[in-house]
UniProtKB/TrEMBL annotation:
Coiled coil: none annotated. The keyword Metal-binding applies. This is Amine oxidase. The keyword Metal-binding applies. Belongs to the copper/topaquinone oxidase family. Residues 296-532, 593-681 form the Copper amine oxidase catalytic domain. Contains 1 topaquinone per subunit. Residues 144-244 form the Copper amine oxidase N3-terminal domain. Topaquinone (TPQ) is generated by copper-dependent autoxidation of a specific tyrosyl residue. Residues 1-18 form the signal peptide. It holds the Pfam family Cu_amine_oxidN2. It is an enzyme of class 1 (oxidoreductase). GO terms for molecular function: copper ion binding; diamine oxidase activity; primary methylamine oxidase activity; quinone binding. It comes from Atlantisia rogersi.
């Protein structure tokens, strides 16, 4: 696990240009922020209605029928080009046209493909045009994300194929797949789907369908070829059962019937306190109470932030945000005291690479943008996922649905006591008294959402601190991706239950950080501090110890009062975890091969990954390596930093029932570094200063503060409520 620091200013580098930042800092209006706002339910519906009405597209409803048809898969905001947005935000230029990005699966034609369209102008669309990936490559139909219809067809295929295994499964697990009504098996699918571009073959892991079914594999994995749009042509190609491969369900069934199969008999599951459930069991040795409420966050004098639409303000901070169905949270126009620090900070991709002995385990390399990482933003539970005091924001997604679906409370905003002072000092007189004490409470504003990508839950945070620091952080929790235990599997993980192996894996998360430090003319360079062994000038014969090396820096184009320039600085705080895929079929995705990569901004390089990378990682449509290998100068240019953070997860018994968040978080900071003349949090009215009036006795104190003496009542007595629905409307 490691954290990366990007300090957004730099001290005393002579290479910095002396250009002035132009007009003074301004705080953008709510109307300006709205150019980055997600599409409303009405806009999503208008786009769908318009496209469905176009006879040349021949679109059909997505949730029924066959895959051999044309369907509208996804609609989301198509952000304005940066050049047009800055012209509008900074120079009073025309407001950019509001457009949608629409993804259409053309499965009902002789050569199926996927096409993306720009649709507009909103709110009343009247035209559309194709969008092209860099290089003009077409999107192969086999690269499409999975849909609910394809899963339903896979279920039917599997039910028919596993009919010969009814007796084996019932005898060994107490559950079955064919013609099931109560004690049912289910499956989880693995990606990438095959070994080469154009394939669509998925390993399916059979599990008992109980609460936390991810932890209940039964020892059977099935490889299904579902490349053809016609499910009648799908076929089971291989099976793996308890360490052996079989060419067909019939071969496996015959082996069982002849008594030639080593059967994995699973224990009967209890009705209550299942090991994969959250039901309390056991007790703590101290006996301290857990059946009463613990500490809570409160706002005794009300909120200290302002949220209007998609515009958020807190202290010196202001920003616009959106929640992309494709990839999640995206910040725009990030400013401090009215001065832009970054045009965009956004999540790009989350990757998990696994090792294992079973075919499904060794094939698992998840790239979660391909699973609709931004669309699985289910309801946040008040008081658990976010404090009771948080402000909650709904999201609307049109992702594999026949209309916009409302995800209530998908985003939350709250001010968080950090539990540690932002800064403090006790000035002792070394005679039992003190000269003064001063401290400023630690607070941060948190913008949060979650992504539940099947088994894993990612908690995505952006934190804004009063001293000009921004932190991007992700916690990993939820169920581990586990496979059936075999003795050979212990090379690739830990045995975490009787028939369960927790597979070793690496999490890698990729961010885009489009920093505009005092304008778009930035540079990136490294500054090495050399070790020197010199004599101490005031003590002949003694040697002077050298300073530590300095990490790379991001250089901006403005001088501050003490002679430094502005910029950023990547500084790992902990050693990073880097892996190359142990299988020759697939190397590490190119965006995640680097802790930090810096490129020039290009309008045709909006993201480092795509929703198609998961199912065609061999020939990805977005070639991140091409971003780097064009040999462009990065001096005094509009630059983008691509940041990868990650950690190695060796599952253990304490990951049951779920992986806990402590120790499973990664992220990076944006930190001011000689950008201001002093810590900007001095503008806060929350410090406390204490001075003795009768030193050194210190019996009478002057307590100076700028907030009320008492915070007053803290928590409102609202009962816990939860809904959890996200249905189309």
């Amino acid at each position: 696990m490691w954290l990366l620091q990007l300090a957004w200013a730099l001290a005393a580098l002579g290479v910095v240009s002396g250009s002035s930042p132009g007009s003074g800092p301004t705080v953008p209006s709510l109307d300006q922020a709205s150019i980055f706002a997600d599409l409303s339910a009405a806009e999503l519906r208008a786009v769908r209605t318009f496209l469905m009405s176009r006879p040349e597209l021949g679109l059909s409803p997505s949730r029924e029928g066959t895959l051999a048809k044309n369907t509208l898969f996804m609609v989301e905001l198509l952000p304005p080009k940066k050049k047009l947005a800055l012209r509008y935000l900074d120079h009073g230029g025309p407001r950019p046209r509001r457009q949608a990005r629409a993804v259409v699966f053309f499965g009902g034609q002789a050569e199926p493909n996927i096409t993306e369209f720009a649709v507009g102008p909103l709110p009343r669309p009247s035209s559309y045009r194709p969008l092209r990936f860099k290089g003009g490559r077409a999107i192969p139909f086999s690269a499409r994300p999975m849909t609910q219809l394809e899963y339903e067809l896979l279920h039917r295929t599997l039910a028919a194929a596993l009919e010969p295994l009814y007796q084996l499964l019932r005898d060994s697990t107490g559950f079955w797949y064919h013609n099931c009504s109560g004690r049912c098996l289910t499956f989880s699918d693995i990606a990438p789907r095959g070994l080469a571009s154009g394939e669509r073959r998925s390993w399916l892991v059979l599990q008992r369908f109980v609460e936390g079914f991810f932890l209940h594999p039964v020892g059977l994995e099935v490889l299904v070829d579902h490349q053809d749009p016609d499910p009648q042509r799908w076929a089971v190609q291989q099976l793996w059962y308890n360490g052996r491969y079989f060419s067909s369900p019939q071969e496996l069934a015959e082996s069982y019937e002849r008594g030639m199969l080593e059967v994995a008999h699973l224990d009967k599951l209890p009705a209550r306190q299942l090991f994969s459930s959250y039901e309390p069991r056991g007790s703590f040795a101290t006996g301290t109470p857990t059946e009463v409420h613990g500490a809570k966050v409160c706002e005794p004098q009300g909120r200290r932030y302002r949220l209007q639409g998609n515009r958020l303000e807190y202290g010196g901070w202001s920003l616009a945000f959106r929640l992309r169905s494709s990839a999640g949270l995206q910040l725009f126009d990030l400013r401090f005291n009215g001065e832009r620090l970054a045009y965009e900070v956004s999540v790009q991709e989350a990757i998990a690479f696994y090792g294992g002995h079973t075919p499904a385990a060794m094939q698992t390399k998840y790239m979660d943008a391909g699973w609709g990482m931004g669309s699985v933003t289910y309801e946040l539970a008040r008081g658990i996922d976010c404090p009771e005091t948080a402000t909650y924001v709904d999201a609307h997604h049109l992702y594999d649905t026949d209309g916009p679906a409302r995800f209530s409370h998908a985003i939350c905003v709250f001010e968080l006591p950090t539990g540690v002072p932002l800064r403090r000092h006790f000035d002792s007189d070394f005679q039992g008294g003190f000269h003064f004490y001063a401290g400023l409470e630690g607070r941060a504003l948190v913008l949060r959402t979650t992504s539940t990508v099947y088994n894993y839950d990612y908690i995505w945070d952006f934190l804004l601190y009063p001293n000009g620091v921004m932190e991007a952080k992700v916690h990993a929790t939820g169920y581990i991706h586990a496979t059936f235990y075999t003795p050979e599997g212990r090379r690739y993980g830990s045995r975490v239950h009787s028939h369960l192996l927790g597979n070793l894996h690496t999490h890698l998360v990729h961010y885009k950080v489009d920093l505009d430090i005092a304008g778009t003319g930035n540079s990136f360079e490294t500054m090495d501090v050399r070790f020197e062994n010199i004599s101490n000038p005031w003590s002949p014969g003694a040697r002077h110890l050298p300073p530590a090396p300095h990490p790379p820096m991001w250089v901006g184009s403005r001088w501050h009062s003490w002679g430094g320039g502005t910029g950023t600085l990547p500084q790992p705080q902990h050693p990073g975890t880097w892996v190359q895929s142990p299988y020759p079929v697939l190397t590490l995705p190119r965006p995640c091969r680097y802790h930090l990569a810096v490129t020039r901004h290009h309008e045709d390089e909006p993201s480092s990954s795509s929703i198609y990378a998961q199912n065609d990682p061999w020939e990805p449509l977005v070639s991140f390596e091409g971003f780097l290998r064009n040999n462009e100068t990065i001096e005094d240019q509009d630059l983008v930093a691509w940041v990868t953070v990650g950690f190695l997860h060796v599952p253990h018994a304490e990951d049951i029932p779920n992986t806990a968040t402590p120790g499973n978080a990664v992220g990076f900071f944006l930190r001011p570094f000689n950008f201001f003349d002093e810590d900007p949090s001095v503008a806060s009215r929350s410090p406390v200063i204490i001075r003795p009036l009768d030193p050194p006795v210190c019996s009478r104190l002057e307590i100076q503060r700028w907030t009320p003496d008492s915070p007053g009542p803290c928590v409102d007595p609202w009962p816990f409520t939860y809904n959890g629905t996200y249905r189309p409307h």
